[in-house]
UniProtKB/TrEMBL annotation:
Organism annotation: Desulforamulus ferrireducens
UniProt keyword list: Cell shape, Coiled coil
A Gene Ontology biological process term: regulation of cell shape
Keyword Coiled coil: yes
Stated family: Belongs to the MreC family.
Superkingdom of origin: Bacteria
A matching Pfam family: MreC
Functional note: Involved in formation and maintenance of cell shape.
Domain Rod shape-determining protein MreC beta-barrel core: start-end pairs: 124-271
Protein name from the UniProt record: Cell shape-determining protein MreC
Regions annotated as coiled coil: 69-106
GO cellular component: plasma membrane
Signal peptide feature range: none
Amino acid sequence: MPRLVSYKNFFLVAVLVVAALTAMRFTDIGRQNLTPMEAAIKDSLAPIQSIFMKIGHTFSGGARSITSLGRMAEENEALKEQVALLKGQVYRLEELRQENERLKSLLQYKDTYSQFFETKTALVIGRDPGNWFGVVTLNKGSKDGILKDMPVVTPLGLAGKVVSVSENTSQVLLITDPRSGVGALVQESRVPGVLEGTTAGSGETRLIHVPKDTQLTEGQVIITSGIGGNFPKGIPIGKIVSISNEPTGLFKTATVVPFADLNRLEEVMVISTVFNPDLLPPTEGD
């Protein structure tokens, strides 16, 4: 029995070899026509070839998709970095634009009042942690010609006065601080009073010691009176937003909102010299 199986295997191999050689002979590339056997074999194998071709295309497409997804992920990360960089540039340009506007206002102020004051521009570099809305620190000091009691202004109006000086810095007491006091006038009626700060952080001041029979109205402008010697006459301070009677019944009090935004100071001007008090800018009623 083993010998019979061996003969059968040999015969099968021989048949396969002959079939292969015959297929190779009949599939010569140079021939123009197919034999009936070749045609039959090709027709029978066509569906299988089609299936294998589709499977091959599917795997090839999948591989390309995976490679493409990898490239897309890398491109997406690169684009994100580019967008972040562009956003940073936009923010920086906007900051430069705003800084340019502020510096332009300071320059216009200096040009307008150059015949009355000499000013020194300074940057706000700090605030007192214990009195955040009452005291600020400037980057100019005694070596820059800054002295105690010099007035500090912005293009919009009065900010405060210098209260202490070191070689490179100076501290400014803002007019909103309760310790501040400024001789003031109602610009329209010329009624005098004293402007003082209120509670820290309120952003308001109040005009006190105004005679009870004085006519005060909301919207009236308050300016410096020049009385006391620390502040030149005629510097805008703010406008009245409310009026009340003092507890004694002898005077009125007006709440005044400063023109300058003292909670967001970045650049200020220190008035270092008043050329001639008699040549100060004219105010209404002069």
